[in-house]
Amino acid sequence: MADPFLYNTGERSGYGCLGHEVQVEHIKAYVCRPSFFTDKAVIVIHDIFGWQFPDIRYIVDLIAGHGYITICPDFFKGKDPWKTTDHWHDFADWMKEHDPVKVDREADVVLKYLKEQCGAKKIGIVGFSWGGMAVHHLMLKNPQLDAGVSLYGIIRDSEERYNLLNPTFFIFGEKDHTISHDQITLLEEKLKQYCKVAYKIKVYPGQVHGFAQLKPEDMKPDDKPYIEEARKDMIDWIKMFI
């Protein structure tokens, strides 16, 4: 099996987080809040490297800086994330224990926390890779989520995968070898045919899987404009609906 990530995920700069960890019922989570009161929130769903990976915490802090209570729960519920030392031939078995469409209970727990403990009235969701698949699933199932952004992760094996409940933005890299151009084309054709809400699909030139969550110091110079564009597009989509 080819490595899903072409970037060397073992080489990352450190990151001093701006938020803090909380316990939400049976789930640990990382939360960052803006400096002012807001009733708007965003849930961030991590990739296979888990809720403590520096890149995902940077994204949480970035979104919070735009005025949202932002939370990244441990959707693995204490199970080990994928590690840079793991072998890719074990990936299929690992995925069986970390199913991105079995996140509904945890999503409901976090939604309840945001509404009852944080005063959130509008809530969006953003997910990367594994988390992108989870976002696609939740945008088909949970009407409490007012908008979603799925970055390089889609549900492939459900006939209902085009019946989005609320506005959803799909972000892809042109050179992502985990999601083919044919899959993206099919998604676009079927959404145009069946989807009754706002949606958007955008492919970023030259970008591989995992490109949009890199911290600035870890970006390659040629990729930086596209990473920054994808992040701006993500934030703009959230602001449009949340």
From TrEMBL:
This is Carboxymethylenebutenolidase homolog. It comes from Anser brachyrhynchus. InterPro entries: AB_hydrolase_fold, CMBL, Dienelactn_hydro. GO terms for cellular component: cytosol. Belongs to the dienelactone hydrolase family. It is found in: Cytoplasm, Cytosol. Signal peptide: none annotated. It comes from the Eukaryota. Residues 27-240 form the Dienelactone hydrolase domain. GO terms for molecular function: hydrolase activity. It holds the Pfam family DLH. The lineage of its organism: Eukaryota, Metazoa, Chordata, Craniata, Vertebrata.
